[in-house]
Amino acid sequence: EASSFATGFPFLEGNGTRSLEGYLFPKTYNVPKGATARQVVEMMLEQFGREIRAVDLDDARSVGLDLHDVVTIASMIEREARVARERPLVSSVIYNRLSRDMKLEIDASIEYVLPGNRPGLLNRDLVIDSPYNTYQHKGLPPGPIASPGLASLEAAAHPADTSYLYYVLTDKDGSHTFTTNKEDFLKAKEKSREVVP
Hints:
The protein is mainly alpha-helical. It has helices spanning about 35-50, 60, 65-80, 85-100, 105-110, 150-155, 180-195, and strands spanning about 165-170, 175-180. A hairpin with a 6-residue loop joins β1 and β2 (about 175-180).
């Protein structure tokens, strides 16, 4: 539980969830033989603390976002962006939607609460009753949905300056098409069915 680690890790104070999701930094660790689970968790939290110090949060704070918000956004970027150069673009869509009071409609946030692995979401999944369902609830989910790396944290703190509001997977290499309006998004989505099964 997050609260049991709050002492010594002040960045956890803004975490309103009980989970350490998002704060266990993904990296290769040299774990000493006989280390306890708590010691391993502390190693990962210490690494998060070191990594986040390099991230300038001024841009995010200027629009009312705190560290927990940035980590939550970064976790969605981590799950949504498959091509590194698109991380700041996905971030810009999230920021743009938040600023317009639009629902985020992030598939990965729903996948986080669904049991098992699925090849894709079904229409019935979009109405699931969960605060992580960004198709039903405006704003950010309560907390991170994955453990973001430094590139996603940087993108969450510094989104690209775009007018994009939508994106859809359109290439087998994981690339997306980004659009500023729903009409172009729907066209790109239809075209993507020819390329991405």
